[in-house]
Amino acid sequence: MKIISNNSKTDKEDMRKIWEKIGDYFRANSIWMKWYCTGCGAIELPPTMTSRFDMERLGMGPMATPRQADVLLITGYLSSKTLRRIIYSYEQMQDPKYVVGFGSCTINGGIYYDSYATMKQLDNYLPVDLYIAGCMPRPEAVMNGFDTLISMIKKGEANGWKHYKENYDWYSRNQLHSLGEVYVKDEFHE
Amino acid sequence: MKEVKLFLGPQHPGMHGNYSVHMYVDGDIIKKAYPLPGMLHRGFEKLMERRLWMGNIALIPRICVVEPDINEMVYAMGIEKLGNIEVPERAHWIRMIILELARIAIHLMSFGGIGGPTGLYTASYWSIADRDLILDIFEKITGARVYHMYIVAGGVRKDLPEGIEEEIIGLLDYLEKRLPEYEELILKNPIIHARLKDNILLPEEVVWELGVTGIGMRSAVDKEYDIRKVKPYARYDQVEFDVPFGPYSDAYTRVSYKPIEIRQSIRIIRQSLEKMPKEGPVRVKISTGSALRWTVPAGMVYPVIESARGEYGYLMVSDGSEMPYRIAVRGASYPQGLLGVEKYLPGHRIDDASLWMDTMGVCAPEIDR
Amino acid sequence: MNSMNSIYENLKSKFNILGVDYPDDMQMAIDLDEKDIHTVIVYLKSIGYTQLSMLTCVDWIKEGVFQLVYIVFNWDNGIHILVRTKLDRENPKFRTIVEIYPGAQFYERDVHEFFGVEFEGNEISYKNLFLELWDDMPPMRKDFDPQKYSDEKYAAREYKSKFISEVGGEK
Question: Do B13 and A38 touch (CB under 8 A)?
Fold first, then answer.
């Protein structure tokens, strides 16, 4: 399987229009993070959100619905069952949208490299803008990662969502290969 | 009347963890509910069969994310029982300190959990900040905030760092000062009274039917049913502590037991710091030959401990080789999280569903494994 | 230990117990024929073992059997009894204990999903719970290879350089 790199823009030149630059500036300072604890890394999010580390200092806050959120955090291992829900959520989110992968499990499978239920590489299925390494990343690392994300948005480098649209076939093929079927059938219990 | 299908979770602020309940509602009364676990399924039981006994120490804390230390303790107890290993005296006491600190941390975390469904966000902000102070202590002792890998077979990984006793006592003093404030904030709050009093009942028959343990059981059956009392492990038989119990279990009673349990944990830690031998070995060598590839004698054992949500145990089977033959996890919230949701969540209102999950103590990762 | 011996003597006088083992000082494991399981469990429940702590399965592939382990617990004396029985691995079928311990319903579903043991009388257990769209043999069986399944389904990251050889380790 071939891997397409997210950073297709090699030249330094900033191709954005002036209103896009202004838009990115404002987006970077008001980020809503989607409230979805997909894995164990989510246990470090409450300290990050609340008074000890307080990510509201960066202009970030949690948001309950995908349609109003900007950032999707994949906090740790990703089981195939979760991936289906995440694809649903991600495709519901409005442009521009960003994906942050937490922990070594999203990078290469981590400690679950031989598990029959977890994905090994998140960027095969969703366009990841930023990875935060560690198992699990400490709140300081999370804050640092968010800071990087903000500067990436300001510079117009966080273009994963465009990449997803352009290479939708490739992503869709990978999703189908691993999941069999992306459609969630939750009628199994009835 | 038309029934509407509603999803609680997996992506929902009132749902703690990646867990889902499908509800059929009529008006705002839940008519049918189906639990949908498995979003956190990683196949631990299979992975553990593929790792060395040593390598599993890194894997097992991840089974229960909010309270990892119980896993290490159960695993270590199982190996010690199979291999007839005597743990040094000091290690027993250190283990108790770690386990009780973890119990305080998870009870504080669950105060934070009550904040979301009731709208009392101050509780989350306070308790999660205070929990972080405990994580700092953990970091000084073990080097990690959440997954410690500290309690290992044969003792603990290394001795307590110098001067940590004073810091622990300082933290306990601080928490004792804070607890009345928590009670003022949470237990005497009119919002909490309105939402939790006489709501989400757990009668004694249901406890026995489902197999609920922990706070839920003790608050319903009016007996001191705590593994620490019934079959003490470590050195729980040498410390004095009380367990709250009562005959009437509503959501409010179960929440109000948490500060009492925190007080008792503080009491246990203080006694442990006093009674533990001041020096001595903390780990016995259990391996013969290679340091990493040790074996465990064949057998089958079911070690159990009391977690914050109840009886937590592994069924450990060894065939005498370098890897476990089978380890099955009994998650403490398995009964109420699956059958409890299906049978007893119906009849409640929609807005009480996430309170139900929180006050019953449903922890998704240990159900899914 | 005394109380455990008396429990064992009591059980032995009433039922045909194939083997006994004491893994711990508050634990007893008894082996039974599969037709005795229900009567023994009903009896144990009537003498105070009111909680079913766990029901699980062990795959003894060399002997060709599945071993079901029912763990019942008496909160008053703190004794766990592990009631064990062996089923044929080729056609694993057993009867449910949901009527005795209603809490067993999801444990049986679990065992069916991960081992393929069918529990007659608990039809809901034939539906998968944890695994969605599962397309292989039950994964906890010993002959299932998760590494192979994972390699086929989930592409691993390819690294451009071999870090181990770069730092001078193995080639």
Answer: no
